[in-house]
Design a protein that fits this description.
Layout: H1 13-51
Amino acid sequence: MRPLLIDLEVLTPGEQRDLANALLRAAWSAAMEGTRIMLLDLFVEVDESVHGDTT
């Protein structure tokens, strides 16, 4: 697999900012994946304890 190369010099400052924001959002999303799963599991557990298991 070849690495992705982006020539930042051909991008306008706005495009560079948009690219940086997109990369940061992707990195943040990947970093938060475990937390989201843990919070969803906790929500399901609390919901079942409050409302009872409906299965």
